[in-house]
TrEMBL record:
GO biological process, one term: prolyl-tRNA aminoacylation
The protein's name: Proline--tRNA ligase
Gene: proS
Species the sequence originates in: Desulforamulus hydrothermalis Lam5 = DSM 18033
Subcellular location: Cytoplasm
The keyword Zinc is annotated on this UniProt entry: no
Catalytic activity: tRNA(Pro) + L-proline + ATP = L-prolyl-tRNA(Pro) + AMP + diphosphate
Family to which the UniProt record says this protein belongs: Belongs to the class-II aminoacyl-tRNA synthetase family. ProS type 1 subfamily.
């Protein structure tokens, strides 16, 4: 391709709307343009990258026995009502009506459609297992689309669904997809780590997220260098708390005046105790009731764990008015002792406290010598706290480390969650009807492109891994006015293309510096400069984008040298 014929609207200024590196560089390098909030047009260079990522995905899915199909983006509400997710998915679901006032949605995912499709086509155990996938646009009405392609309202996604006879079959399918995902991201040139995660609105028992490690990542992950444990902070398990020391004598419950002391840290300092001796009581509202969540004062509530423990659909922190209405006390002075008509969920480490401090449900007042079991009994004890770096690994006890990550894929064991509610069954070898056991596996294609930039860039622009670069090499004649240089550049460009290499010829009548800057910004893995030495001595300059290594080599060796270097980039 000749740059003079390309749609390549590079920008010199950093767009004000761009918050993260990938967003800035995709805009500046002429890959995307904003159409509406969270919705982008993919220009030719972006489309080339996306097609390469999709091809890698297709090859790895097919290798594991996946069969590609295509499902509709517009889905009838009846399917979502049948599965019970029409309300569960909440405001992120784009809903619309047709001219007959029938309800539809724009698909954020395809569990309903694929399950009903298999329900209608599969009758016998002889037709299983099945692995079906498609690559298509998805839609989620994000409250605040941000970070460019990281969190948009329209995006491209691959999802595969497995259908097995039993849990043993699901285990095999899950392992196949785990291997396939590992290969996909490795082939895309990404440093990626699978971590335990929460299944969210998709549901299911077991799930792993594939995280591209990058400082700009939205998600925090905890991992252990001594073993293979890794988890999203939303999922990371706390090490079981030690039991109460039987030698500790329970003190007498007593009210203490604590004027103006609200936070656990303030109360601990005022009463000269450690924050870990304070019971932090947080009031939440679910779709059913009001809940008090108890954690130690040095810990924070993990709202994802709490939501799952409560088996709730919605969870939100109560505001000041709601707290007063539910407890009779202002925020900062609420405690579990004497709370009426409120469900209490306590973290196990709260139950291991003795002679603790807690709010007295009175303004400017706390209680000391609070003992769980004697002074209050929770309705539920569950791990509901955030785990932090430095704590013991729940698997081996070594110290946990923290990193930032960008989720680019997730795999789920769904079991019979959807096959039961949607009636997807088969007849086994004994003629008995059984529910199909399912899994689902998603890769964010557009997000993978953005994540690749977050992990591969410098101050000059993008550094594409060769496997997903829009083009492999750019040929730059120093002077477009020099006929000899242009002829040699043209000849090299043609030879590269005949050799099956994806080459660009920058034939624009621009200064060399402009061409070099654009080449670095776009991120071609290799740059070959044809200048006066090419005309006089038959030598060209080859520069590797990632390392910056520059070599002079004979023009006649350039094609072979590109073939040799490219697999290493």
């Amino acid at each position: 391709m000749r740059v003079s014929q390309m749609l390549l609207p590079t920008l010199r200024e950093v767009p004000a709307e761009a918050e993260v590196v990938s967003h800035r560089l995709l805009l500046r390098a002429g890959f995307i343009r904003k159409t509406a909030s969270g919705i982008y047009t993919y220009l030719p260079l972006a489309q080339r990258v996306l097609k390469k990522i999709m091809q890698i995905i297709r090859e790895e899915m097919d290798k594991q026995g996946g069969q590609e199909m295509l499902m509709p983006i517009i889905q009838p509400a009846e399917l979502w009502l049948e599965s019970g997710r029409w309300q569960v998915y909440g405001p992120e679901l784009f809903r619309l009506k047709d001219r007959h006032e029938r309800d539809f949605c724009l698909a954020p995912t395809h569990e309903e459609v694929i399950t009903v499709t298999v329900r209608n086509e599969v009758r016998s155990y002889k037709q299983l297992p099945l692995m079906l996938y498609h690559i298509t646009n998805k839609y989620r009405d994000e409250r605040r689309p941000r970070f460019g392609l990281m969190r948009g309202r329209e995006f491209i996604m691959k999802d595969l669904y497995s259908f097995d006879l039993d849990e043993a079959g699901l285990d095999i399918s899950y392992r196949k997809m785990h291997e396939a995902y590992t290969n996909v991201f490795k082939r895309c040139g990404l440093t990626c780590r699978p971590v335990e995660a929460d299944s969210g609105a998709i549901g299911g028992s077991t799930t792993h997220e594939f995280m591209v490690l990058a400082e700009s990542g939205e998600a925090a992950i905890l991992y252990c260098n001594a073993c293979d444990y890794a988890a999203n902070v939303e999922k990371a398990a706390a090490t079981p708390a030690a039991g109460l020391d039987p030698a500790v004598q329970a003190g007498q419950l007593q009210e203490i005046s604590t004027p103006g002391q609200k936070s656990a840290e303030e109360v601990a300092a005022f009463l000269r105790v450690e924050p870990c001796q304070v019971i932090k009581t947080m009031i939440y509202k679910t779709e059913r009731d009001v809940v008090a969540a108890l954690v130690r004062g040095d810990h924070d509530v993990n709202e994802v764990k709490l939501l799952n423990a409560l088996q709730a659909i919605n969870l939100e922190l109560a505001d000041e008015q709601a707290v007063r209405q539910a407890t009779g006390a202002p925020t900062g002075y609420v405690g579990p002792v004497g709370l009426a008509n409120i469900r209490i969920v306590a973290d196990p480490e709260v139950m291991a406290l003795a002679n603790a401090v807690a709010g007295a449900n009175k303004t400017d007042t706390h209680l000391i010598n609070v003992n769980p079991g004697r002074d209050f009994t929770p309705d539920l004890v569950a791990d509901i706290r955030m785990v932090k770096a430095g704590e013991p690994c729940p698997k081996c006890g070594a110290q946990l480390q923290e990193a930032r990550g960008i989720e680019v894929g997730q795999i789920f064991k769904l079991g019979t969650k959807y096959s039961k509610v949607l009636g997807a069954t088969f007849l086994d070898e004994h003629g008995k009807e059984r529910h199909i056991v399912m899994g689902c596996y998603g890769i964010g294609v557009t997000r993978t492109m953005a994540a690749a930039i977050e992990q591969n860039h410098d101050q000059d622009g993008i550094i594409w891994p060769a496997a997903i670069a829009p083009y492999h090499v750019v040929v730059i004649p120093v002077s477009a006015k020099d006929d000899a240089q242009m002829q040699l550049a043209e000849k090299l460009y043609q030879e590269l293309n005949r050799a099956g290499l994806e080459a660009v010829l920058d034939d624009r009548p621009e200064r060399p510096g402009v061409k070099f800057k654009d080449a670095d910004l776009v991120g071609y893995p290799l740059r070959i400069v044809v200048g006066s030495k090419a005309v006089q001595e038959g030598l060209v300059e080859m520069r590797q984008r990632r390392s910056g290594q520059t070599d002079l080599l004979p023009l006649s060796d350039a094609v072979d040298r590109v073939k040799e270097i490219l697999p290493t980039l």
